[in-house]
Specification:
alpha/beta; Rossmann fold; 2 domains; 6-stranded parallel beta sheet; 6-stranded mixed beta sheet
Length: 334
Amino acid sequence: MFRVPGVRSLLRAALAAGAVSLSLSAFAADPVKIGFLVKQPEEPWFQTEWAFAEKAAKDKGFTLLKIAVPDGEKTLAAIDSLAANGAKGFVICPPDVSLGPAIVAKAKLNDLKVMAVDDRFVDAKGKFMEDVPYLGMAAFEVGQQQGAAMAAEAEKRGWKWDDTYAVINTYNELDTGKKRTDGSVEALKKAGLPADHIIFAPQKTLDVPGSMDSTTSALVKLPSGAKHLIIGGMNDNTVLGGVRATESAGFKAEQVIGIGINGTDAIGELKKPNSGFFGSMLPSPHEEGYQTASMMYEWVTTGKEPPKYTAMDKVTLITRANFQQELEKIGLWK
């Protein structure tokens, strides 16, 4: 004959086990949440990063929380919001790299893992925060490819180095910018352009007007024998402004070779039938979005931390001949 207390104990144990099982099942069914914060969501570059980060979320089964962070205040508020919504970590391209220490501190306070993309955090002394995982463009190597492409086009046109000069718009305050233009200059020299045919034009601002001003100041230093110009800079806008300055100075499109970096800011110019802006080195925002989101997912679910630095040096030269096809491949053609 069974004792009632024993039966009751077994029933209570069974119910408790069932409740725990249901709780664990519900927890397991709740998808991992990861944030992806970008400084300029209206830009095609970041829209593409988001789109491919969402593809990673779909492939791997996590939820992506996309937030625009145009300034420091919104950045720190977004991190609190991610924590409140149950996120485990986030990828960010900050509006200001000097926010790095504040972002890391806020992430630690909320027990969130953080990874930087595109722009690397710097500390209070302006040094890279190398302890934070980062994926971004290999600046010097991409600059080398830019310079090599400009030299190759000059050779294709039959230009002679003795009457060819380069104006390189620089912004050495930004380490990434300096590395890009340093790489570009090295490639031009290697191709045979004399060092004294390279004019450096420091910019005050990283935009088209800023590069117009710096290039205009550099053009007056050209000798009378300068027939052909190469215009370089750290991105599309620095080269676009330089090309505008050559137009105002009376140089024809066929006398100028300008090649930018990024691709996304050059679409309007490449739609024109003729311009001194020849092309742009297009990186891989689709790969960056997918890879960083995937790395963060692996980190929060398996504990596998991403490398401290993942260099992306794959770029494609887009020109009037191929830009639409190349942009269509990665969803950047509108």
